[in-house]
Amino acid sequence: MGNSYAGQLRTTRFEEVLHNSIEASLRSNTVIPRPVFSQLYLESEQLVTHDGRTENDDEDDEEGSESNSPPTPYRMKPPPDGSCTTDGFCQAGRDLRLSSLASDALDVPPGFMLVGVKSPSNPENLLVCAVDRRFLPDEQGHNALLGFSGNCIGCGEKGFRYFTEFSHHINLKLSTQPKKQKHLKYHLYRNNQGTLVKGAPICWRGNDGRITQMGSSVSEGHLTSDEQTPSLTATQPSHTPGSYTGPHVEPQTADIPHTLINGSHAVSSISQQPLNQSGPGRPSATGPHANAGPPKKRHKGWSPESSANSMTESNAKTPPSSLAISTLAVSSVITNGTRPETSALQSSSQGSLAAVSPPGLPVTVPDQLLHTCRLQPVIFKGHGPLPQLTGNVSEVLISSLLQSCYLSSQTLPRVYQHYGPSPIQPLSTEMQILLTVYYLVQLGPDQVPLIEDLEQIFMRSWRESHLSEIRQYQQPQTPGAQGRHYGIETLSALPGLPHHLPVPPHSQQPLTPSQLPWLAQLAASSCGEGVIVVGEEVGSLSQGLQQTFSRLMDGRLEKTNYVVIIVTAPGQETHSCVVVTGKHQCRALAESMFSPSEGLKEINHQLSTGVAQELIHYCNSLGQDGDMDSLLDSASVDSNEPSPFTSSQESAEEKSLKNTYSPKDSHTQCSKDSLSPKETVSSPKETCSEYSVEWREVRPIQLAVARKLLSHVCAIADSSTQNLDLGSFDRVSFLILVPPSEVTFQQTVLHLWSSGVLQELGSLDQECVAPREAERYVVKMDQTAQARIDNLIREAHSNSYTLHILVHDHAHWDISSASYSSSDGGLGLVDQLLNSRQVRDAANILILHVTSFPFALQTQCTRISPYNEIHWPSAFSNDVDLYHERMRYFGVSELLESTRSGSSLPLMRYDSSFESMASALEDRFPKLHSAVIRTTVLIHHYCVALMAVSGRISGSHNLHKHTSVETMEIVQSLLTAAQQCPNHHGHMVLLRIPSLALAAWAHRRLSRVRRQLGLEESFEIILGNPNQALNIGPTFTDQIKTWLKIQDADWVPRTYLELEALPCILILSGAEPLGESLPRSLKYCDLRVISCSYLQRTTLEQELGLAAYLVKAESRPPHNPGPGSDLLESDAEKLSSTDNEEEDGQENGDSPLSSSQPLQSCPDSAALDPFPAQSTPSPNVQKGTVETTQSPSQSQTQHQPQPSSQSFPYPQTAPHHPTQPLQSYSHTLPPSQSQPLSQTNYLPHTQAPPQQQSLSQMQTLHHQSQPPPPSQSCRQHSKSTSSGSLSPRASSPHQSCSWARGVSRPPSVLLPHALYDIITASDSSGLPRCTSFLPHMSVAWASSFRPLLSKMMTCTEQSLYYRQWTVPCSYHMDSSNRTEGRSDNFHPRRLLLSGPPQVGKTGAYLHFLGILSRMLIRLMEVDIYDEEDINYSAQVEGVQYHPPNATWPNPDIMRTLPFDYTIHDPKYDDISSVYCPAYKPSAEGTPARQEDVYIRRRTSRIKLSKYAAYNTYHHCEQCHQYLGFNPRYQMYESTLHAFTFTHLLLGEDIQLYFIIPKSKEHYFSFSQPGGQLESMRLPLTSDWSPDCIKSPIFTPTTGRHEHGLFNLYHAMDGASHLHILVVKEYEMAVYKKYWPNHIMLVLPTVFNGAGIGAAHFLIKELSYHNLELERSRRLEGGGPAGDVWPFIILADDSCVMWNAVDLNARNGPVEHAVSLKQVLQHMEACPDLAHYGLCGIRKWSSRGITDNKYREPFSRGLLHDFLLLNVDRSQNIQYDQNRFTCHDVDFTLRLHSAGLLVCRFNGFSVMKKQIAIGGYRTFIIKTKMTDVPTSVGPSQYICAPDSKHLFLATPAQLLLEKYLQHTSQKLFPLSTKNYTHPVLSVDCYLNLGPEVTVCFVSSRPHSVNISTTGLLFSGLLLCFADAFVTPGFLKKFSFLKGATLCVISADRSSLRQTVGRLELEEEWRFRLSDEFQTANAKEDRPLFFLTGKHI
User: Fold this and answer.
1) Contact 1390, 847 (CB under 8 A)
2) Helices 1097-1104 and 1313-1320, interaxial angle, to 10°?
3) Cα separation of 1235 and 1230, whole Å?
């Protein structure tokens, strides 16, 4: 930012113009005030001053202005309906023409004057209007206020505040934007005759009426208090109001020249300083912070927070020029848009230019250019063709980046192109060139121009010049309610580019070509020679380039970084180009023009050809200290001498050096008698007690993500698109694709094997533990992958019942199109394999892309639906709290936050001494690639640091000046850490060197130095080559095996995770990281040599992602911001590096730093011994802060007060010894297991005490040994799911193992300075700059006219942003995915899981595979009721009635078989048992059961057989037609048929409805010709077909439209059958929707509230009615009437499978699954079936057939759930239509008493599925008052008649049944637990609760009843007693004294009649208070009952 004062104009005239411009900007209502260059350079007369402005300030603010920006983009609004549109008349129809009004008396208000308006549509006539004179200029053309105020003279309408509005009213009909300057033409005055005539023209002074002068006091630089505020509020002309979010100030400062006059450029060159600075040469308010004044009326976006930025100094004595710098904006001359045909300014412009020469003249590049200048200039093409270069062209680079930027910035989006006469114009060529100069001027001397920054500047300029128009266009486009971010864009803060870089506006006059060179030169003058503009003196680009080359060769451009050549000539296009001549800039640009692979090739070439040797030799020289190699050779290495680290060998100087540079390390030096490495290893006396390894469960957040993935898969399956049929898969198979890195491959194998997924999927036996087995499921994406994928495709094709999951991990790695990729590079393989037609079309292959950087997969042509994206939950949404997560992610956002907190050493920093050395060498070796230079310097630093720290080199105290402080600290920490731990646990240092060749060289060099220093056993040096397996020395392998207690002799570590606690330097090479996870012992992440050339978001973030870490959730972040720190906690979901993921902020605000609770403030993660050898800790450390005299770059690395993970109160220290024994590795693993597993459970450990305590306190506490509270000791740490490892146990406060201390702190990251600046800078939305970069090399921005990402975007919105604004390049694999119908582009079975690096995605998707497999198994399994039959007496009868293998029952034998009255169904274990003399109950009786029938009952998970019944979720290919519910098939039409029949018990005609699909109409007969439903067709008894079931199946159902098992296609094994769903009327629509191809019988409305009894009643009666209709139809047809099939099936809606007993099995009888067809055909084929009234089958139980009770193949007893009913024989026995419970027990007892045979086929069983939804047993008892279910006890179900009681909205019968069930022990006290004295129940069975026994008798003549002789009953129950119950009948029975009578009737009168008719009062005593009714209102027809006692 040059300090040159070249080109200053120190004249009063200049200052005057500045202040005029300032005042004009103050008055401006637009976002960008427009200063006026024409005053200074284009006017001849001296301007007069006028000091009359301030009294109008407020008024002006209120009134706004119209001169420049109308409120909307200009297009004539249609006039209001009925208004006049005639020229010369106003919309009210009044004449305005001067010719008409000349003699009229006009009303002109005071302060107004008459003005003539020129109408373009009526040029011969002037229109008359009255305008406030304040808004018009005086005679000199000055002092016109901005804005407008006018009245219509015609109609008298007053108060027009906008000229646009006024021009509409007076019908000006303009084609251009209305301007008062353009159309208010003449003053009008009355002549001597009193006639109104045209006077002098209004003097608008060159179309600029905003020029007013400030008083002389202002020109002296003293602002009056009145003017102070407005002048400061305008200091950021280009800032959009309301967009600024916080006081962020860039740290870069520079002196500002006083006289940078050139408007917007002047502001651009201001450095951003703290706001409170003020003084000569510094603006008192800079940047966006100063735009704090309230907005003009039209500034919709202004928000109060911008006022926080206003300056409060009342009298800023600022030199006028420096104030001008911060207030000037570009003159109205500098505009955009079309050039005017005539311009008053052109006549006075600078002198004529030389004729533009044709571009064709070639330019000769001088020889020896590179040798002479030591740089390779880069020419940016600009506007116009670049001349041809000849000669030494190889030493010049040509880039078209700038040209592309110009073009894209001039290509308006389509939305702006089709809007009538659109006022929106792209930037003009001149404006682009001028802005380019501004941008180059403000770049720092070491900054490289970024095209992204320039593009943003162009866009900002364009937006702000069309603010209102864009607002109109862009507001409707806002996706996802992110209006703020898609609306008006704010300024971007670019590094080195101040927020307030002003943007030249677009006003009335465009910037002309003739002004451009001069203005550009003026702009460039501020930075001295930094930017040179060649313009007026050259006539062509050729001439300019030739001149530039000459200057270069002459050495005249030594201090120049950029030469801008501008060629303008009248009538010709403007041409331009930029020549980059700065050495640093040329090198950086040249290297960025290579692709990454080309760059690596160039590095390899330079290394292989020996070009770099000179550099290496140069670095080896240490100047006066000798030569590195000779020093190393002289180093005496003797393995027997004491360790080089002992303090005895350290000179006092070296100790002081260490103390100075790294205070924390001075505490960690070993004692004099410390052992050498070898001795320590071999000594078994001491072991580290802080190191342990345990298995770790999957973290809650991973579980949540896995479930999220599963729910997305289910959503695909549940959608109606039929893209995934989960129900048809019975197992999961998977293949994980990883990048071609051996370590990543082994790491994934390790995770997979340790996750247990393989065992879960049944792929491995539990015993098989070899990790090699897991390798079959992981594939490296190299040439071997093709065969594996082909194999998977074949498997998928041949096995359609397996769901294959292709997990594409690290999915951003290879997205190259197969057609563009060369075969040898290996790229394009993913496209070739995953996007092939076979994979795409296979319905059983699901692809899951997993990546930390999904941006490249989120383009306009993406294959992944936005609905199929799963994002890792953000730490800033409150989601994370829901998961009770113990780990907190520390990623890129948190690293960035640590650079802003300011209270501690940031974890991310740069090394300035390294940078300066590298920079000097780059200048010295211009031909070498910077990566070669930087790597050489870095390795040199490491080698020197090793020599210095080792103590082997004599005079090593001088060596530190040849390395950097950062490197010294890293090496010292590495070497000393392992010395402190008895087991040599240490840290990892990561060196990231992308070039394989450079990495190999670095590895050789470091290894040699290590060997020569005798440090081979101190630390390992590992070369991380992605193509090779991990290679560790045997000593270190043995060390790891010892730590992990691994017995396997052949075991070697294969992943970096297994290097936990190994002191090592890992040199990680490869063009980009390929997903390798690093251990938690990583302490330094040295990225100093990564490339700064490839500035894509993915590239930057994946390098930074290497340092991502998981820390304990309770621990504080590593940076400890003070309470005032602006962490923006309120942002709900922040965008971090990869997503809006976890920013650490001050999440744990519950433990702030305070005096009562001091936190440990431990310096940087190097080991800190809290008990130093010195007598007192240093005062700096005591304070917890660091004060040193070092340079910032040095001190940066020293002290890192890290409160992270150490925020517990001080005294709670742990005991010295571990609280738990060290658990051996072999104990936690199977014996043969040889690999440590990644997912480890971390045991507690505590941290060292805080530094704030005095030494005596520390010593006292050292001897305390109170254990920590559980909350403090339960610390768990993990690197990631995918990378868990080891963890310290609880240990003493004096932790000897520095690894244990450092394991809970994130690593420190060292970056190149250039990248550090880019990454730490924020853009206007507060996001890191890198987020606004192009997301990936393979994509391009769809348009320059895109908004910026917003800080408040969620990941989903960010995805939508990239989907809208990025397009794939031609070599991107998605570029071929273009079709017209956008929705079809998405592959339906593709998912994308994104989350930040190292957060645990691998563990999440592995868990997902496990739960998906479990879910598929669950889909194939159901919960079946598995309960043993109840109430079997101990003795077993010895009689065998049928032979065990009898096929069918014999009716004669069945009649001899005793009827079993006992209830055996376990679902009825809570009802009254039925008395049977043969049954002896167990002594303890049956306990009462709770109401919730679903929770208590025992179930078993059974896999569905192929004959199962299914619910609506099953839709396999075979079922489609059967279900009729698939878009591929036509939806089946169905018709509604009414059917009426009469029944005596119903008392009236009942109208039923049948819904009959067209495909099922053949089952019914219809009248001809009317088509009325007549009957349901029934087969004849004699009919038989192997593929047909004769009996119609009726399934009553309620509330189970989704879950009822109505799909009998598989159960019937394809047999044709008639299946009818019986539904309630109010559920008809929903059942029809879910089961469109099923026949429905709709119950009448009166049955809407009825129970199951009503449904069965209606089914049976309708079936009998239908049977008679069918018989009569057969008779009419001449057939035999009696031969019609009389059976129906009544099936529960939860019957899922059927089984048959196989008696011939070897091991006794076994059950196997059979189809329902087989069961029914067997029963229907029974020869004597017509003799039976009711048949049924057994209920399945897993222990069923082993018991003796089933040896009888047929039995008589109570039947449930699945019945074959003979409607003919049972004609006279009806189901009780009122019943809700136990209706089947009641019906079977009555059927048996009527003498009908009941038979249960014990050879078959039915399995019932547990369905917890719907069903006839779920009735809610609620009050009439509210629909909300309330808790109503059974005692409230009844009340006394006529009493005031809470009435219930529940059917009376249900209340009665529930009351009797729950309170019978009160009603029948003698019956409780008294089996021998049951309650006599006549003609019905009612449940009186499990403690009461009921004896059922029928009053019908000839009925079959048990013998009751000698039986004394404890009660009598008469329910709706009919005429068959007589006094004589009752007198047959004997009752105990005090037995209870209960008589139930429908109303009180029938109750009394029953008592009288049965003469009950003779034997029973009644009281008035013993009469009750159910708690129903009268309209709900309550039931009444009377109780009495037996006398």
Assistant:
1) yes
2) 110
3) 10
What does the mean pLDDT of the chain come to? 76
Instruction: State the helix-helix crossing angle for 930-950 and 583-593, rounded to 10 degrees.
Output: 110
**Cα distances (angstroms) measured from residue 131 to each of 62, 161, 205, 209, 1849:** 18, 10, 18, 15, 77
- Interval 1010-1026: pLDDT, tens: 999 999 999 999 999 99
Quick one: CA torsion of 1349, 1353, 1356, 1361, rounded to 10 degrees?
-20
Q: Decide: helix, strand or coil at residue 1863.
A: helix
- What's the residue count for the chain? 1991
Instruction: Write out the two tokens for 805.
Output: 């999951």
Q: What is the pLDDT of residues 973-1002, one digit of tens each?
A: 999 988 888 888 999 999 999 999 999 999
Q: Are strands 1838-1839 and 1964-1974 parallel, antiparallel or unpaired?
A: antiparallel
CA geometry: angle 1768, 1772, 1774, nearest 5 deg: 100
Q: Are 1031 and 742 in contact (CB under 8 A)?
A: no
How far apart CA 410 and CA 389 sit, in angstroms, is: 28
Place of tokens 């383009």: 859
Class of residue 1187 by CB neighbours under 10 A (exposed 0-12, middle 13-18, buried 19+): exposed
Of the candidates 408, 35, 488, the one whose C-alpha atom is nearest the C-alpha of residue 241 is 488
pLDDT number for residue 422 = 57
Show Cβ contacts of residue 679 under 8 Å, excluding neighbours closer than 6 positions.
none
The tokens for 1970 are 């013993």
Phi/psi for 1551 (5° steps) reads: -105, 120
Check residue 735 and report its DSSP letter.
Answer: E
Amino acid identity, residue 1872?
T
Q: Which residues touch 1293 (CB under 8 Å, ≥6 apart)?
A: 1170, 1213, 1214, 1216, 1246, 1248, 1249, 1261, 1262
The pTM assigned to this predicted structure is 0.63
Q: Measured between alpha carbons, how far is residue 43 from residues 7, 19, 50 in Å? A: 20, 16, 18
Least confident of 15-24, 1175-1184, 1543-1552: 1175-1184
CA distance 16 to 3: 24
The 8-class DSSP code of residue 451 comes to H
Strand partners, 1807: 1697
H or E element at residue 1065: strand 1064-1068
Cis-peptide, bond into residue 982, ω within 30° of zero? no
1046 pLDDT exceeds 70? yes
Amino acid occupying residue 1592: P
Q: Coil, strand or helix: which one is 1695?
A: strand
Q: Which amino acid is it at 531? A: V
Q: How many Å apart are CA 291 and CA 293, to the nearest integer? A: 6
**DSSP one-letter code for 1347:** P
Element (H, E) at 436: helix 429-442
Q: Give bridge partners of residue 558 from the DSSP assignment.
A: none
**Residue (of 536, 357, 507, 390) closest to 34 by Cα position:** 507
Task: Take residue 1792 and report the two structure tokens written for it.
Answer: 């048996």
- Give the other-Cβ count within 10 Å of 1923's Cβ: 7
Distance, in Å, from the CA atom of 703 to the CA atom of 699, rounded to the nearest integer, reads: 6
Convert the pLDDT of each residue in 1843-1860 to its tens digit. Answer: 888 889 899 999 999 999
Q: Is 802 helix (H, G, I), strand (E, B) or coil?
A: strand
What six digits make up the tokens of 1825? 């008052």
- Using the structure block, give the residue that is written with the tokens 């404006």: 431
* Token pair of 1730 as six digits: 């017509």
Pull the structure tokens for residue 865.
């639906």
Amino acid occupying residue 1943: V
Give the whole-angstrom CA distance, residue 1048 versus residue 1041: 9
Torsion angles phi and psi, residue 523, rounded to 5: -60, -45
Residue 1003: pLDDT above 90?
A: yes
Instruction: Give the strand order in the sheet containing 575-580.
Output: 397-399, 378-381, 575-580, 562-567, 531-534
- The stretches of 1601-1699 forming alpha helices (DSSP H) are 1628-1634, 1652-1676
